[in-house]
Amino acid sequence: MDFPKTIGDNNMKINIIFYSFLFFLFSCKVEKDSNCNVLLRKAKENLNSFYDKNDANYLIASKIYLDSINCNSFKYKIFNTKTTILFLLKDYKEGIQYVSSLDSTAFDKNYIKSMYLNRFKALESESRSDTIHRNQYYNEGLSAIRLYMNEHPSDKETLCEYYLFKMLFTDRTEVLREVELLKKQEMYENEFLEVLIETINNFKK
User: Fold this and answer.
1) How far is CA 172 from the centre of its chain?
2) How far apart are CA 80 and CA 183, in angstroms?
3) Tens of pLDDT along 86-95?
4) Cβ neighbours, 10 Å, residue 116
């Protein structure tokens, strides 16, 4: 004998289907994220191999792995690796396009996007022997960092990035002179500034 279907039975069926569908979507996402993790790990491994063996094929392979990542949650996870690869490949136009697509508010510090974007633009200008626009873009990136520094004067990491970025287009002697002036202002510990000075002396453009 068949029992009549009640409203409760129908609701239960709907709930089972709904939650089964959600579980399916979640499983797909987990699997997709797992694949993206593997691709990112492979990209980093090939980048490290490039540094070890100085073989450009590893660099190209690293970029191929990165370009295969299509997880939205990885958009910013790949940032450091991708920008490094594009700098090394001297693919400045793609670097400009990539960084332009990112949201500056998604970074821990709001000057990061401007710093990288203007560096790519500066290098692209330099590749065309356009030193006027190169310096303009470097100064725009430096201004973005300085603006953040004015709001966060005790941030030592940003101070280091400011002077290392400035080293990209400024004479070493001038940068060192500025750091020496900081000692007189007594805003930072001498030990920290000495490490910064050593870093600047060892910096290679």
Assistant:
1) 26
2) 32
3) 999 999 999 9
4) 22
User: DSSP letters of 30-87?
Assistant: HHHHHHHHHHHHHHHHHHHHHHHH--HHHHHHHHHHHHT---GGGTTTTHHHHHHHHH
| Three-class secondary structure of residue 138 per DSSP | helix
Residue 24 confidence (pLDDT) above 60: no
Q: What is the pTM of this model?
A: 0.81
| Distance separating alpha carbons of residues 23 and 185, to the nearest angstrom | 60
Confirm if 37 and 65 have CB atoms less than 8 A apart: no
Alpha-carbon span 85 to 24, nearest angstrom: 35
118 by Cβ neighbours in 10 Å (0-12 / 13-18 / 19+) ranks as: buried
DSSP state of 2: P
Residues 119-145 as b or e (16 or more Cβ within 10 Å = b): bbbbbbbbeeeeeeebeebbbebbebb
Amino acid at 145: I
Residue with tokens 């009640």: 6
How many helices (H) and strands (E) the chain has is answered by 9, 0
CA angle 151, 181, 139 (to 5 degrees): 55
Per-residue pLDDT tens for 86-132? 999 999 999 999 999 999 999 999 999 999 999 999 999 999 999 99
For residue 120, give both structure tokens.
């790519």
